Amino acid sequence: MATEVRVPTLGESVTEATVATWFKKPGDQVAVDDMLCELETDKVTVEVPSPVAGTLAEIVAAEGATVSTEALLAQINEGAAASGPAAATATATAAKSAPAPAAQTVAVMVPVLGESVTEATVSTWYKKPGDTVAQDEMLCELETDKVSVEVPAPAAGVLGQILAAEGSTVQAGGQLAVIGGEISSKPAPVEAAATTPAKSHDVEDAPSAKKLMSEAGLNRNDVTATGKDNRVMKQDVQKALAAAAPQAAPIPPATPIRAAVPADDAAREERVKMTRLRQTIARRLKDSQNTAAMLTTYNEVDMTEVMALRNEYKDLFLKKHGVKLGFMSFFTVACCHALREVPEVNSEIDGTDIVYKNFVHMGIAAGTPTGLVVPVIRDADSLSFAEIEKAIAEKGARARDGKLSMAEMQGGTFTISNGGVYGSLMSSPILNPPQSGILGMHKIQDRPMAIYGEVVIRPMMYLALSYDHRVVDGKGAVTFLVRVKEALEDPRRLLMDL
After folding, report:
1. In this predicted structure, what is the pLDDT of residue 172?
2. Active-site position among 33, 131, 229, 469
3. Which domains, and CATH codes, for the chain?
4. Is 468 considered catalytic here?
5. pLDDT in tens, 250-283
6. Residue 469 appears among annotated catalytic residues
7. Phi, psi of 418 (to 5 degrees)
């Protein structure tokens, strides 16, 4: 029985690709998910795995051919052994290339880092060359712009050469280390590195890459290959051209260059490199200030009723739902109600359009040892108090451990930041782009208040709403804060959707 191998979905608005490289030839045995070929589009490189195990019978689209989505690439005979010279050749090749068990090595590769993230910094190695490692034992930690990624051992063995030292920048899919047999005291890596270029000359580069190098007059030795088996891909040539191009103007630093300090003071200073996460936070916050017409409006809320309700039901809530009842669920539900009345606070600008969100993906800012992160609780407007508290507790714990994925920090429509947990009495939060609003919570402070002509002590909290004045006017911002205040001072309004 023959199985057809067709062009997979190439991505939004992409309808055709070029067959860059075939990794198998007719007659070769293939297993399920074995890589058959590589397709190249205008934006990305797409690998085509084998859908079944069997024998590659026919290649329909040769290297360099242009194919459209769902076009036929090849055919595989399921479970059938190749016959004739092809089978003999494949068997002989496999037998010849099969290494001895003692010499087998396993490459430790950079895992998938997330959407739109192509590089990371090697933060910490937990093992050193010569150490024995078990399968899935943690080898090192990588740091991206948003999250930390742990790299487990793909197999049990002895950690050989470490190819990417701490502090180095690695690309997605790049090699970090080698796990294999005995550790040699001789500098074998140099020899291995010397033989790699010789191998690269025997492989065929991507057709589009060769065309681009020819047009630009670029030598292959000037391009760093990132494709399979050291193949040069189109994006490799583009990177080389971009690096060679002279910069029109120097990019100004994000912060002013520090003036020279006296030698006595310099000896007592400690210089620590900013993490990638901290650098990204700094850049995004500054971009937000430069882009949005940001204003902040304030109000205060009497927390008496919320605190009384929480104290009355917190034990029963914990017993039934297995999670503590905090203030964040009250604020989240109150904000969701207010966003329905003032939808512009839950919108964003896209070019000349305003995109109104008919849902609430609530970002809850959380401080971590490496910087501020904002995990997103999706469809918070449809969740109960217990579901919100469970989501906040779970995401907060993983944020502090650096276990959040990038997908969990993307797509937020509104953000709540609680500086009150650190003792802040008042602040002006900065927008989390592309959002149009962020609510700042602060410390609950007992203050004398005039209530019905009498001075009484009440637990008060200042609220701050920073908003993009390009979308939200003063009336909308004040209305939003008033609705949040009303819902918190009389929580029964939340129950009755008032």
Report:
1. 77
2. 469
3. 2-99 (2.40.50.100), 107-176+208-244 (2.40.50.100), 278-495 (3.30.559.10)
4. no
5. 545 555 666 777 877 778 888 887 777 677 777 7
6. yes
7. -115, 85
